[in-house]
Amino acid sequence: VCSSDLEAREALQPIADSPDAPAEVLALIGEINTQILFSPVPAPQKAEYTIAGGDTLGKLAAKYNAPIALIKKANNLTSDVIRIGTRLRIYQAEFALIANKTSNTLTVTDHGHFFKRYRIGTGEFSKTPVGQFKIVSRQEKPTWYRGDKEIPFGDKENVLGTHWLGLDIPGYGIHGTWDNSSIGKQATAGCIRLVNDDVAELYTMLPLGTPVTIRE
Fold this sequence. Notes:
The structure is a single chain. The chain is of the alpha+beta class. Helix content is 25%, strand content 30%. It has five helices and 14 strands. It has helices at residues 3-16, 23-37, 57-64, 68-74, 196-205, and strands spanning 46-50, 87-91, 95-100, 105-110, 113-119, 122-123, 131-140, 144-146, 149-151, 163-167, 173-175, 186-188, 192-193, 211-215. An eight-stranded mixed sheet has the order 5-4-3-14-7-10-11-13. Strands 1-2 form a two-stranded antiparallel ribbon. A hairpin with a 5-residue loop joins strand 10 (163-167) and strand 11 (173-175). Helix 1 (3-16) packs across helix 2 (23-37). The longest helix has 15 residues, at 23-37. It is globular and about 50 Å long. The termini are far apart. 28% of the residues are buried.
């Protein structure tokens, strides 16, 4: 990531925010945005912070409303232990998600501007609910509950992939999959499904409380 990436993003943003933005532009700016987000490069959207006594990653995550995983990845931290005097850059995002059941796409916005778009799978027979929701739980290596049966991560019957972002409607969420052929289709029991690499990226980015709009 370099200054030219920041300049490219600034130039492309008005195009990406337009209703008829070309797919190539959306893909390019999405890639630039995540490179900036996940690296320690300076950017106007990032707060500079120097670790002081008593600080923890948990306290910083709460202060900046950013997942611990994002703070660590963006600052090349390999441990939860932080040292006094270490300088961090923390992206000041205001992420929101828009899922479109017709196009099977999930668009991430930041402060109302286009950030990145992902391909998704949604519910067959229109089982994915429509409306305004928010992320209320986050789980890595999730357990799947099918009726009263608990199916742990790693079991071949567990369909949730590597990560789970639960919505404030019981039983529904955003998750990964081991069946990539289902992406781009209406093929789930109602949840929003992404390939595992994409849901891992979202898990790193999105804090609890992130709003999710699901549209027909």
